[in-house]
Design a protein that fits this description.
The complex is a heterodimer of chains A (about 250) and B (about 80).
Chain A: E1 7-11, H1 16-27, E2 31-36, H2 39-51, E3 55-60, H3 66-79, E4 85-88, H4 103-131, E5 134-139, H5 142-146, H6 152-172, E6 177-184, H7 190-193, H8 197-206, H9 215-226, E7 237-240
Parallel strand pairs in A: 1-2, 1-4, 2-3, 4-5, 5-6, 6-7
Helix pairs in contact in A: 1-2, 1-9, 3-4, 4-6
Chain B: H1 2-17, H2 38-52, H3 58-61, H4 67-78
Helix pairs in contact in B: 1-2, 1-4
Classes of the chains: A alpha/beta (about 250), B mainly alpha (about 80).
Chain lengths: ~250, ~80
Amino acid sequence: MILNGKIAAVTGASRGIGQAIALDLARAGAQVACIATKEANAQTTVEMILAMGGMAKAYGCDVSQTESVEATFAAIASDLGAPAILVNNAGITRDTLMLRMKDDDWDQVMATNLRGAFLCTRVVTKAMMKAREGRIINITSIVGLHGAAGQANYAASKAGLVGLTLATAKELGARGITCNAVAPGFIETDMTHDLPQEMKEQVQKSAPLGRLGSPEDIAQVVTFLAGPGAGYMTGQVLTVDGGLTL
Amino acid sequence: MADDIFERVKKVVCAELDVQEGEVTESSNFIADLGADSLDVVELVMAFEEEFKIDIPDDEVTKLATVGDAVEYIKSKIA
């Protein structure tokens, strides 16, 4: 298994893409710290991993708060060890047209999606630098590359993650740490569940691959980026959208 | 006391920059003599902060070019 002996931390691991990523990394042999706002929610994912013979532990964390992030990663380091793989996946939406968008809608999305990724990256880099290895994978979105009406906050935070990915790749490359991003298209999760049926049909029609994506479609690309096969790749954004944005 | 600080600084420098004690003198420049790059300097400063329980602000970091600079600075902070 390509990730045997590696410790991975995944934020937003309680459901959707984050859960699929945690499961797939565990399947590849990694011990996974499953991080979610509430520990009990991450526990669901942990139990799925334990049931398939993997190793994982649940952590509750508000990724937008420095103290919470530092306490969580200190606990991970003492329970499992310092992570060699970090997946910044935690993300929220507060969709509305800009004219109606409240300051809070903007701030909360930026705090979780962008500040959260920065805080988690900062806290893992010290040990990664010492170890001379590390894989940081940011989950952005095609919306961060192409924009979307009603998602000014989400699109800005996801575009911000692309910039963070590029800067991290340049800053930490000399220490053997890679940083890449995955930009999912339309993936069937709770986040996209409530979008209108006609929109989903439209996506299905416009994507050359003719279907919506599954969380596993994203997870397997993340596992590739975490593994030895991606050792010479850094600062890249991989779009995984069934060809939707072609 | 000053010698003691020098010895402690030397230990931190050796551990962080992977150099031998014999290579480290008061006049050793972290970058030019001890082979540090910008990331090493940041790690070194964080290690000093931890070892001496002090806070070294970013604008002070740029003034710490040599081992002697660091010893003098740390002395002034913990005196």
